[in-house]
Amino acid sequence: MPTTTPQRKDQGFTLIELLVVVIIIGVLAAIAIPVFLNQRQKAADAATQSDLKNAATLMETWFVDNQSYVATNPGDQLNDMQHSTNVSVVVTSATATGYCLDGTNTASDAKFHYDSDAGGLLDGIC
């Protein structure tokens, strides 16, 4: 009687199959990384806009108490306001009837401007 040897099956992936998987992962990463970086910039811009709107509310509160937007130092109105990380809000001008605020974020190249006379939040700087 002839003896039967069990068949040996090699199980695993070929080099070609592994290379195809690596290439697919590389293509997906090339698509996902720029999208992720764009979302970070959008978040930084939203934080700057939010802080500008909060500063505008603070300026309006100052006006209710003092009947003018002008303080001894126009930045005095913003000293106690808590800003988001990396955000800077500056009073660029304040008169008895209106004010301008500029906001920047070190995590973004965008600059925003809040002009009470022009209707609120705008892109760019005064």
What would you say about this model in short?
The protein has 126 residues and is an alpha+beta fold.
Mind sketching the topology for me?
Blueprint: H1 15-66, E1 87-94, E2 99-105, E3 111-115, E4 120-123
Antiparallel strand pairs: 1-2, 2-3, 3-4
Word description of this protein:
With 126 residues, the chain is an alpha+beta fold. It has one domain (15-123). 41% of the residues lie in helices and 19% in strands. A four-stranded antiparallel sheet has the order 1-2-3-4, with helices on one face. The termini are far apart. The mean pLDDT is 83.
Beta-strand residue fraction: 15-25%
How many β strands by DSSP? 4
Element order, helices and strands? HEEEE
Instruction: Categorize the overall geometry.
Output: rod-shaped
Low-confidence stretches: none
Report the radius of gyration as a whole number of Å: 29 Å
Q: Which structural class do the helices and strands define?
A: alpha+beta
Average pLDDT: 83
Strand count, sense and barrel status of the largest sheet are: 4 strands, antiparallel
Alpha plus pi helix count: 1
Number of separate structural domains: 1
* Helix content class: 40-55%
End-to-end Cα distance: 98 Å
The neighbouring-strand order within the major sheet is 1-2-3-4
Keywords:
126 residues; alpha+beta; 4-stranded antiparallel β-sheet; 1 helix; 4 strands; 41% helix
